[in-house]
Amino acid sequence: MSNFLNARRGLSPxxxxxxxxxxxxxxxxxxxPEELRQRALQRPERASSFDNxxxxxxxxxxxxxxxxxxxxxDSLKFRRRFLNRLKPDAIGDRSSWLRFVAVRADADSxxxxxxxxxxxxxxxxxxxxxxxxxxxxxMPNLYAVRAGEGFVIRYVSVASGRIILRPxxxxxxxxxxxxxxxxxxxxxxxxxxxHIAVEA
Length: 200
Hints:
Elements: H1 2-5, H2 13-23, H3 33-41, E1 50-55, H4 58-63, E2 74-79, H5 80-85, E3 100-104, H6 107-112, E4 122-126, E5 143-147, E6 150-159, E7 162-166, E8 175-178, E9 189-197
Antiparallel strand pairs: 1-2, 3-4, 4-9, 5-6, 5-9, 6-7, 7-8
């Protein structure tokens, strides 16, 4: 106790419990009664109705199954009911991959996919959906795709061993990505864009 009072050592939670026991003091006796009353009156948040989704840069989202905390730029809340309703369709084993990540559309992707994407749009990616099966009948899926050293947001189709990256706007060129020997097209798909949010 003397060492603690003279700042020569800390006090572990166990030691603190023993000390309070000896002094016959409850931990609540140390708190301000008015603050306790205010907290008791506060409406509890329904934490279970939301999930936190990490906002990351596209290379981080593409390359690793789990996102290291140091690569998380921010954390965004999405309704758990909405996320649970989304249907996965994974080619290959992605069971160890964190399913949902959020990314910001880069300037080129925003221009290529205008007006569907705006500058700075935040995209929710489902990384457990890397098939080309249409999610909504009559509507093409939008994907985050590896292309060379970078990543793009495009509509995707496959022909003759190439991934065809189609823009929204006719002014932007169609691009081709060669599928490497021993790889399938699904290897290049980071995930399906399942929600777009445009910041005001």
